[in-house]
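Q: Could you predict the 3D structure of Glycosyltransferase?
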Amino acid sequence: MSETKSSRQKHVAVLAFPFTSHPLPLFNLMNKLATAAPEVQVSFFNTAKSNNSLLSAHNIKLPNNVKLYSVDDGIPECHVGVENRHEEAGLFIKVVPRNFKDGIDVAVIETGKKITCLVTDSFLSFSVGKMAEEMSVPWVSFWVPAPYAFQLIFTWIKDQSLESIPGLSALCIGDLPKKALPRDQSQLAKMIRSMGVLLHKASAVVMNSFQEINPVLLINDMRLKFQNFLYVGFLSLPVPLPPPTVEDKTGCLPWLANKKASVAYISFGTLGAIPRNEMEALAEALEASGVPFLWSLTLPCTFVYIFINNQEAHKPNSYILSGSIGVHVTHSGYNFVCESILGGVPMICKSIWADNCMNARMVEQVWGIGVRVEAGLITRSGMLKSLATVFHHENGQKMRDAIGSLREAVLKAAG
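A: Sure. Here are the predicted structure tokens for Glycosyltransferase:
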């Protein structure tokens, strides 16, 4: 790209929502944009905790035109401790947009360049839309969860049927996140529901997904709602998944190499936790089934603690899904579903929170690439049945064929 005097004055501010899986896809999008336009200054605004996590967890070399800034997280200095992520998010929301404005002021002074565009997580729409208007700059909104969850913010859910909502006819009211329902009057729920009005002010809306895996009715409806509605692929992980490039001192990878499509990989995400009775039932089912398994638990430095049939090992999570994994037992978080698709691995879904139930319904009934646990609860008998379905029944082969086709569609779309 040729550099002009005008482009040298451009300064893009990227504003992150610093919780769960939100920061990483936006961080990766920012890096791609900065690499494609090296003459444009890019400033990334996030909390110190989240920035540190991104830098320590991912071996990413920042482009020379990128600088990271840490903004106020809203937690008072005298605060004894945050009880949970909901409290932490509530404290953060209270200082938005003031914290971002303060950070932007610093970046403008340091670079000598005024902000010419805002790129933000859609969860910040409750404030950044007005910021963009005040600054007289374009606003690009980036939606991190699944596109079908995006449809909820434009719809007032008032009955038990979703048949009339484009792209959601396969879902049930019970699949929806509680914060999408009118009866939830929490600060975060109100913030999410306000997006439907505010996002129409955005110059463009960007999806963390591939168009090829989404319902046609949903795609068409979104294009009617927005003039610039873009799909940019899975930005939480590389496409295709890379082969291992680090020395394996654990024996984990050779162990996997000898067990083609026969291993169960269990992971419920960084925040996922299932009740003790369900954990015990899962362990009993795995033992009774005789299926080789890896069970990961989150530890610092983004490593997972892995039990390889009573042996212990450490391995970066991105290297686990492979041709040796026959099923992924997961909470069906969107990033985990995307990773399973890229790995070509069917899923057994135990939903925990947020949009997990929506994702699980899509996995089972729309894409046909997995099953949900019976009644939403892990039991010994139910898990044994699910494992048998995936590994030994005709439906399991259909799942493998379906996820293989979906994977090929994604790889083709990614080029």
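Q: Anything worth pointing out?
A: The radius of gyration is 22 Å.
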